[in-house]
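Marked as duplicate of an earlier ticket. Keeping the data here for the record.
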Amino acid sequence: MIVTIRKYESETDNGLLEFHENTTNIRIGSTTMVALFGKDEFCRVFSPDGIWLAHDGKGIAGAILFSINNKIKPACTTIYALSVDEKYRRRGIGGALMYKAEIFTRNNGFNRLILNTQPDNAAALTLFKKCWYSVTATSQNALTMEKTLRNFR
C-alpha cells in the first residue's frame, strides 16, 4: 500500500469538511475528526497550509491540522488534531503526518511544536512519544506535549 501525504484541496476534496456553528467535522474514512472551530475561524486558522491528508489512492486514510501560533511566545506550530482511519493504524501514517508538521515548522522559520492530548489516549501518547514529544504540562483532562527541533547547521 502506497500512501501519499498531500495538502487539502477544496476543489478535489469536496465533502471532506462539514461545518457547524462551533465545530468542523473532517471525514477520515470511517471516522470523523472534530475540530473546535466554526467555519470562519477554521478557514482563517488552517487555510491554506494547515490541513494535510494521507491518501491511499482510494480514499483518505488520515489527516492532521496545524498552524503557526503567534499567541504563544515564542511563536511555534500548534498541532490541533490528528486522526488516522482505524483500518490504517499502526502503519506509520500518523508518524508521516507528524513529520509533515515538522517540515512546515522548519519551512516557516520556527523550531518548536506543541499539542494537547487526553491523558487516557494510549495510542496517541505512544505515537507522540515515538515522535520525541515530551509532556510539559498536565491537568486532569489534558496533557500538553512539546517538541523542539534541532538545528542542523
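See parent ticket for discussion. Residues 4-148 form a domain with the Aminopeptidase fold (CATH 3.40.630.30).
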